[in-house]
Amino acid sequence: MATIEDVAKLTGLSRTTVSRVINNHPYVSEEKRKLVLEAMEKLGYVPNSSARSLRNQKTSILALFIPRITNPFFSELVEATEIAAAEYGYQLIICQTRYSPEKELNYMNLLKTKQVDGVILASIQNEWKKLKPFLQYGPIVLCNEFDDRANVPTVRLDQVYGGYIATKHLLEQGHTKIAYCSGGYRSNVAKSREIGFKKALAEYKVSFHEQYAFRDAFHIADGKRVFQKMMELSERPTAVFTGSDEVAAGIISEAVKCGYRIPEDLAVVGFDNQAITELTNPTITTVHQPVKQMAQKAVDVIVEKIQTKKYETKEIYEFPLQLIVRASTLGSKLHQREA
Hints:
Layout lengths: L3 H8 L3 H8 L7 H14 L5 H8 L4 E6 L5 H16 L3 E6 L4 H12 L5 E4 L6 H4 L8 E4 L10 E4 L1 H14 L5 E4 L6 H16 L9 E2 L5 H12 L7 E3 L3 H13 L9 E3 L16 E3 L2 H18 L7 E4 L2 E3 L9 H5 L1
Helix pairs in contact: 1-2, 1-3, 2-3, 5-12, 8-9, 10-11
């Protein structure tokens, strides 16, 4: 592998002059600049970007923290964020925390060691007090996940409303025995959806029963497990609102396997509007999240913060949610099922 010394030897110039060319120093003649660039190309020499970045305090790299790349919601967010970042000339690296607080803190050191210019957190595994100290090294923007204690820009959705409209839809179908599935207990997104779920129940004067609450459900396999748990109840739910299309797909798969009719025997609502919602049979009623708009806004904001160096500013950017009604709930009204 070629070194800076090899370039200097080939050009007959000093190592200092070659370094100045690499770092775009203004006091280098065009003749010498051209000579160095030609030598670099001939030798296949690639400058050490990490070393230059430490001197320039800029890497043109952003880090996006997600819990699980295999979740279609986060896969879509990754793609949309990369596209938005590229428009500004930034590269994107993905940090998969797998819901681990320790991994999250380890990845935050990328900001501390100046290996990235900023961090976008799409999930949060630690209390904010543990993350706040990293703001002295660069900007942090929350996207999707949020923490009201964080004095940083937040791009979020009205998750309370999302939980509310999904549950209200089931109540309008005549259901009163409605189960609820959520993800991680640390997630404010999941907590907010549950608030919306309970708000809709209260509006219709329907009691919430803890036996109908199923937590830590993330995958298709979790959805299958949740259905089996529901079947163990003496009084089984007639509908279920999940915080994930993957979980909804798992519930439907297991229900159909066990001879249940969807939605006649069990109505199912997912969340995210992932591609899987139109591939299952029946298709899945869900809540659409504008992922591309969120990603674009998060990148717009973090680039602005990098430029202004104003890292601790509380700004809230909230996007709307939309209920998409499909076959997993259509025709599930109780009077139709009992006719």
